[in-house]
Amino acid sequence: MSCQKLLLCEVHSLSRKFPSVQNIRKFSSKRSNGNRRFKLVVIGGGAGGCSIAAKFAKTLGPKSIAVIEPSDVHYYQPMWTLVGGGMKSLADSGRPMSSVLPSSIEWVKDKATEIKPSKHTVVVGTGSSKQEIQYDYLVIAVGIQLQYEKIKGLPQAFNSPGVCSNYSSLYVNKTLQALKDFNKGNAVFTFPNTPVKCAGAPQKILYIADQFLRKNGKRDNAKLIYNTSLGVLFGVKHYADSLWNVVKSRDISVNLRRNLVEVNARDKTAIFEDLDNAGKLETVSYEMLHVTPPMGAYDLIKKNSEDIPDAVGFVDVNKGTLQHVRHPNVFAIGDCANLPTAKTAAAVAGENGILFRNLTNVMNGKEPELIYDGYTSCPLVTGYDKCILAEFDYNGQPLETFPIDQSKERRSMFLMKKDVMPEIYWNLMLKGNWNGPAPFRKLFAPFK
Ligand code: FAD
Ligand code: UQ1
Predict the structure, then answer these.
(1) Each residue of 142-181: pLDDT tens digit?
(2) Which part of the chain is the FAD/NAD(P)-binding domain (predicted)?
(3) Which pLDDT score, from 0 to 100, does residue 325 have?
(4) Catalytic pick from 50, 164, 336, 378?
(5) R_g of the chain, CA atoms, integer Å
């Protein structure tokens, strides 16, 4: 069955498991009988868009908020690391969009195609179905775009065995299949030469693969290779030191400054450029290839929204207040914002309380008052029962919640990632009631 057909089956089974909220107001941009002006418009119904819409749904009246989001399914993407390793299913990671958006908002089930900040307008749809939606206040939460097509030979190579990627609902099920099919040879894992979401995920699956192959008696026949475009294993030394120990103890080869440029599925080779020697290419044969795709700002922001992006293409916000630097009635949250921190759902949790208070102030004619410290977290899963819980701020300073050394591999942190975090996400964060673990950090501070 093709990846797309598999996905459709998933969507149908999800709708049976999580019935849609009955009274949610949904209109397609093709029908123009709905209200087209809203006090608050949120673009994107992912981690950031859902959680911020939920917060404002509690304070603004009905019909005040519109969420523009084209997808039928909302995915808890952090679970895909575990899906790739066979610890959860893809269906476990998704819920119908209608069941996670607040019931009092208007869901514009379409794609935003242009933002016109000078006219306080978002354009949705294209061609004859194009329509304009007006806002008093705007929150941009569209995430970051996957760009598999920037690698020669992709995405076509995903149709061949052994090529997989935890970063997409289309390809994540191929990871477990590739592990099961593996007999001998190279298992290669990549990290692109672009900003990414969850910078730890490209190596989490490397460690899971190592454990999987050991459990199945195939590790001796395997060479595990981690080729990363970065010059370091992880951006924060406190955790990178521990990860180097993991890599050495598990006999994994790490090559820094290697960027995947081509996949040749016919002869099962991957071609990398050496970022320190211009023009030098290296060909690596693979039995299994896990690709972390290049990523970048969506064209919506980068090309189609005058005065919204920074020079690179992400939404140009104040890194403390999350308010747009030129348009005071526009804010951004999550992966689409040009915040100099690691892009994660944990960062979204740290941001959403700040954004809510600051935008509420602006709505009441006051100045933003809260300042985001860049809090982000990456549960670095290192196998089927271990995890290093990285937590840090804008300066790369550890900002740890628990009164233990979190740079050590721990089973408790693995259980938190696997069993506790999904509950926090679905039941607290998406309902607007989780601003990250700062209160727990304060509670545990005396025990550190
Ligand atoms: P998203 O959640 O991606 O949502 C963006 C939404 O915008 C989507 O629903 C999309 O359909 C919509 N959209 C896009 N374009 C448009 C448009 N033009 N118009 C309207 N809507 C649009 N984070 C962690 O904290 N911990 C982890 O362990 C972790 N592991 C991860 C592992 C993997 C494999 C992956 C892929 C991610 C992981 N993350 C993790 C990162 C986390 O999932 C993201 O950082 C988080 O989802 C960002 O939230 P967001 O709202 O900015 O973007
Ligand atoms: C977190 O708050 C969060 O957002 C919901 C995540 O995203 C899935 C995380 O992975 C982590 C680790 C946190 C931080 C939470 C705690 C309890 C340390």
Answers:
(1) 999 999 999 999 999 999 999 999 999 999 999 999 999 9
(2) 38-158
(3) 98
(4) 378
(5) 22
